[in-house]
Amino acid sequence: MHDLVIADALVVDGTGAPARHASVAVTDGVITEVGADPGPARRRVDAQGALLTPGFVDIHTHYDGQATWDPVLAPSSQHGVTTVVMGNCGVGFAPARRDRHSWLIGLMEGVEDIPGSALTEGITWEWESFPEYLDALDRTGRAVDVGAQVPHGAVRAYVMGERGARNEPATPEDIAAMKAIVKEGLAAGALGFTTSRTLAHRAIDGEPVPGTFAAEDELFGIGEALRELGRGVYELAPAGAAGEDTAAPVKEVAWMRRLSAEIGRPVSFALLQIDAVPEQWREILELSSAPDARLYPQVAGRPFGMLVSLETLHAFADHPAYAAVALLPLKERVARLRDPELKARILADHPAEEDPLSSMVRIFSDRLYPLSAERPDYEPHPSASIAARAAAERRDPMELLYDLLLEDDGKAMFLLPILNYAHSDLDAIREMLTHPRAVLGLGDGGAHCGFICDASLPTTMLSHWARDRSRGEGLPLEHVVRLMTRDTAALYGLTDRGVLAPGMKADLNLIDFERVANRRPEVVHDLPAGGRRVLQSADGYLATFVSGVQTFDRGRHTGAVPGRLVRGR
C-alpha cells in the first residue's frame, strides 16, 4: 500500500530523457516506483495525461529574512518551486552581532530592494552565529525546502566591524577569522559561500557591499574553507555584471578559474547580456568551459529589467506636478490623473532633480513594452514599444505612456528590459540556456520587491521556451525541465532531488502544460508593516507536492508546510 500514486501522467523525469506515460508511487516522502500502475495507495490522483515533473530547484533567491516569518515563500512556491537556495550575492542576516541588526537590514534593503520596515518587523533575531541561524530556520516548517549560504557582507562586518562595512583591506588575522566563520557555517550545513563585486550592489546608505573590493588574499583565503571541507559552492555577483564596467567580466573569469582549481569547488556567477558589449557573454562562456575550470555561469531565461506602473516606478514620479497626487490611494490618484489640466501640467513639467529610474523610463521608451493581463509577453517585438506605437499614432511617447498608465484602473504594467535584450529578442538567452556549463538562476525570489518579479521564471521556461516561442526556435520540454531540476540540484550537491526515480525525494509538479502561463504582475502590500511587493501568479499548476505532501492545489496553498531546512552534505 503506497501513500500516494499519481497515475497516467506524462512523465518528464528531469534527466533530459524523452517524456513517457507512466505512474509514480510515493511512500514515506520518497518515490518508490515509476512505470506501470503500481497498485493500491492511500491516495490516488488520476493525472489524465497531465505533465508530471520533479519539483523545481531555484538556486538564486533572497528569502533570508522572509523565511524566518513566512511559511509560504510566494511567489516562488506558486510556480512549482519546491527548493530554494538563499544567501546569494554576499548579503544575508548571519552571523549578526546585536548592534549590527539594523545595519544588516539596511544592507539587504539597499542591495535587494526589500523594505527595511518589513524586515525590521518581520525578523525575530534568534541567532548570532551562522549555525544558530540554520537552527532557527530548522525549527519552522514551510511550503518549500530552504537552503542557505554564508554571505560575505555579514561575515566581514562581524569580524571587522566598521572597517569591514566600509571595505577597508582585510589583514591576515581578519582573513583567518572570516575563514573560520565560513568553515563553521559549512560544517553546520550551509550550501556555500557568496560575495558581490558589482558596484550596482550598495547598502541603503550608498556604500558598496562589504567585499566589493576584496583582494585575492581575502577571496582565496575564505575559499580555503570550502577546500578543507570538500563541500559548498562559491557564488558571486562579479564586477561588471550589471554593465557598470564592460572590461571587468572577462578579467573576473581569470581569477575565478584559478580559484576553482585551487579550492576544487564549483564557482557560480551571474552572466547577463550587456548592451554595450552584446557578444561578450560568448567569450565568458568559452572561458568558463576550459578543462581547468569548474565555473558555472548563472543565466536567466528572460530579459532582466524593471516593471513600470503607477504602483512601482514610472516616468513622471520625479515631476513636481505629480507630487501633489503621488501619495493618494491608487483609485483616487487615477481619478485625479485623468483630469486634463493636471495631465497637461505633468507632461509640461520637468523634475528639479532627476530620479535615475524615472529618467531611464523616459530615455528608453523604445524599449518599454506593455504587459498584457493574460499571458504577458517577455519577448516583445520592437513594434510594440511605446516609442514605436507613439510614432505610428503621431503622438509624443510620454503622452501615450501617461494615458496607458491609467488603463485597467491604474494597474497597467510595462516591461523595461535593461539586460539580456540587446537585440530585442531572446536568441542570445537561448544559446546561453543550451550551453553545457550554464545553470538557470537569477530569479531573485523575495528581492527587488518594488519593481521586479522574476521568481516566476519557471513558468516562463515552460510556457515560452517549451511551448509558445514564435520569434525563433524554442527548447525541448525535457531540456527545460532538466535545467530547473537535476541541473540546479546537482550544482549544490542536492542529489536526493531533481529527478523522478525510485529512492528520490517526492517533490513533484502536476501541470496542465497547455494552460500553464504567467499572469500579469500585481502590487500587493502583504509584507510585515504593510510592506509593498510585486507578485505574479500563474495558471496551469494542478498540484505541487513536497516530500509527498500536497502543498498547492490549482494555485492555492493547501496549508501544508512539509518543507524543511536543507543542510549541505
From TrEMBL:
This is Amidohydrolase family protein. It comes from Actinocorallia longicatena. InterPro entries: Amidohydro_3 (IPR013108), Metal-dep_hydrolase_composite (IPR011059), Metal_Hydrolase (IPR032466), Metallo-dep_Hydrolases_sf (IPR050378). Pfam families: Amidohydro_3 (PF07969). Coiled coil: none annotated. Residues 45-550 form the Amidohydrolase domain.
